[in-house]
Amino acid sequence: MQQPRSRKPSASERTPNPTQGQAHSPSSDQRPHHTEATSFTGTMTIRSEKESLDFASSHRTSPFAYWTDGSQRCKGDETFCAAGVHFQHEAGHSYKGYALVDGKENNDAEMFAVGAGLKAAALQIGQMDAAGRPQRILLFSDSQSALAELCRWPDSMPGLVRDVAGNAVRWAQKLRTMGVAVDMHWVKGHGTSAGNKLADQVAATVTRWVSIMGLQHGEGVPYNIGEFQIVNVRLAWLGDESG
């Protein structure tokens, strides 16, 4: 799980029109700041730590709320990365865990987790009749940097994470074509958000498992670790149309 290091709280107040392609973190006495980007077809909201936890708690059991987190674990000279997604739906809740075969940076894991949440939403909602689809989904992440880079795409950081962000953007665009808005929200990590804790638990369980057992399962073959279904994938899997 990544806590933002380079983005310090600014003095920006909420404005009537969202700022495009920029991300600001308000201090505890400020209103939420909303960002709407041109490439990413959605909005991002960053609140104060307390407000982010209050908002997250108010949507703990909301249908079509997706909680994402990335995890990195180092063992000797090896680095293991994973992503976790937890989401509610009308039939209950689901967990998805991904061991990232070629992910080596925490940014890779956090961005992949956000993209995996968007992909899960698009595939789930795509199977529904148009009349029953939600008007919006909520996606929660504790990585301000991942959300900001996604809103800035394609002018985001270079390397693999830029490609991961591009695939996440395409899933958001697919949701929009289905008439579903994407609202992303930063939530403080290691706080009181049950949804964030569950996503963190999934991601951390995967990195701990693969650091001990290795990637003994083939790519794309689901397997279970306790109640979590895990799959070993490459970062490019995010661009595949199948789940």
From TrEMBL:
Residues 1-46 are annotated as: Disordered. Pfam families: RNase_H (PF00075). CDD domains: Rnase_HI_RT_non_LTR (cd09276). InterPro entries: RNaseH-like_sf, RNaseH_domain, RNaseH_sf. Residues 12-29, 37-46 have a biased composition (Polar residues). SUPFAM superfamilies: Ribonuclease H-like. Residues 60-208 form the RNase H type-1 domain. GO terms for molecular function: nucleic acid binding; RNA-DNA hybrid ribonuclease activity. This is RNase H type-1 domain-containing protein.
